[in-house]
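Private note to self, pasted from the team thread so I don't lose it. Backbone tokens:
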């Protein structure tokens, strides 16, 4: 599959990589605004509930990262999300200007790395620590791609996750992920504050502009970003600034174009019927996210089927699509019988400190003769 893998790896970087964590970040900001505003209107302490919710997410993310999959995003989101309330009273203009500044700031940070020959890099202390841990467990550059295939015990996975969790932070610091994510949180806060999600028809013209300019800017930048990521590795370090710039022009514009496209589809009655099958899988996003980690470990790592490192995008993208379709079917079945996803149910109860009914109650039984009499009366 080498030939088609070559193309798919570039398609993945140009159209997929980074766009969906940006959408997730946008939704996170909207979620904060909903929680805060609803509780404020009800006379409750919205901040207290929000921080309690974040703390529980932080614990879930930390357990996920250390016990199962080191690429966890939940712990990172919980930490960065704690900054969000600082902006709850900011003006709309302040929110949007701050978001733009945060999105372009990685170019400045990477310029400082180039000028200082890599010495000015806030990820360096983490890098030193994680390299020492890798050396201790025998992870080297030559075996890093198949270490988890060869080492097939759960204790090995725990060692890998301990190191990988630190690697995750090193990569996020090195790639300036904090300002990027916080920026999308703020855009989401702006959208939630104006209840755009509840008044889609009023923003149809805005969605069309977002869709047009998002694709016009994001697609060419995505092609450039894919080239710098995969083909421009031999260029001087200073060329990395172009990679950072193409990433900034690719990821957020394309993510916003995707969001606008989904909103426009939702406003189209014919398209709305076709995309509503995705609603259940979104209602239990936390459960499905963690479930994907279990399935990924079982499929790719040595503790399971161990096919990781032996396949390219042709196979692993097909597996990703198959897993997602499975979750669509499973989620639809689940919500026929239950009110919440399993992890969402636990998360919600811990947040609000009260027991919530998980199983849907069956409709009350009414004898047939009673139904007939009710019809006659009607």
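Design output:
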């Amino acid at each position: 599959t080498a030939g088609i893998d070559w193309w798919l790896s570039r398609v993945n970087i140009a159209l997929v990589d980074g766009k969906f964590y940006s959408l997730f970040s946008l939704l996170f900001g909207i979620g904060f605004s909903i929680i805060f505003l609803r509780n404020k209107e009800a006379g409750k302490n919205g901040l207290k509930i929000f921080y309690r919710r974040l703390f529980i997410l932080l614990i879930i993310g930390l357990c996920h990262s250390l016990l199962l999959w080191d690429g966890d995003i939940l712990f990172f989101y919980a930490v960065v999300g704690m900054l969000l309330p600082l902006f709850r009273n900011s003006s709309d203009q302040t929110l949007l200007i701050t978001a733009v500044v945060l999105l372009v700031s990685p170019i400045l940070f990477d310029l400082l790395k180039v000028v200082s020959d890599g010495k000015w890099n806030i990820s360096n202390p983490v890098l030193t620590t994680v390299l020492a841990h890798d050396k201790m467990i025998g992870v080297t550059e030559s075996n890093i791609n198949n270490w988890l295939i060869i080492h097939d015990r759960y204790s090995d996975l725990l060692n890998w996750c301990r190191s990988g969790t630190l690697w995750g932070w090193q990569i996020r610091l090195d790639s300036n992920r904090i300002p990027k994510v916080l920026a999308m949180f703020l855009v989401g806060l702006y959208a939630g504050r104006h209840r755009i999600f509840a008044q889609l028809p009023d923003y149809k013209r805005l969605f069309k502009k977002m869709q047009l300019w998002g694709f016009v800017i994001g697609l060419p930048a995505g092609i450039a970003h894919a080239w710098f990521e995969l083909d421009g590795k031999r260029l001087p370090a200073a060329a990395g600034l172009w990679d950072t710039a193409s990433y900034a022009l690719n990821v957020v514009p394309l993510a916003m174009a995707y969001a606008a496209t989904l909103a426009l589809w939702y406003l189209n009655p014919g398209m709305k019927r076709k995309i509503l099958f995705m609603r259940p899988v979104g209602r239990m996003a936390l459960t499905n996210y963690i479930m994907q980690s279990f399935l990924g470990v079982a499929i790719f790592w040595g503790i399971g089927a161990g096919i990781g490192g032996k396949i390219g995008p042709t196979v692993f993208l097909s597996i990703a699509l198959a897993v997602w379709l499975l979750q669509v079917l499973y989620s639809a079945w689940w919500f026929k019988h239950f009110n919440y996803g399993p992890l969402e149910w636990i998360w919600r109860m811990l947040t609000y400190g009260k027991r919530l009914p998980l199983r849907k109650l069956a409709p009350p039984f009414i004898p047939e003769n009673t139904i007939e009499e009710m019809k006659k009366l009607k």
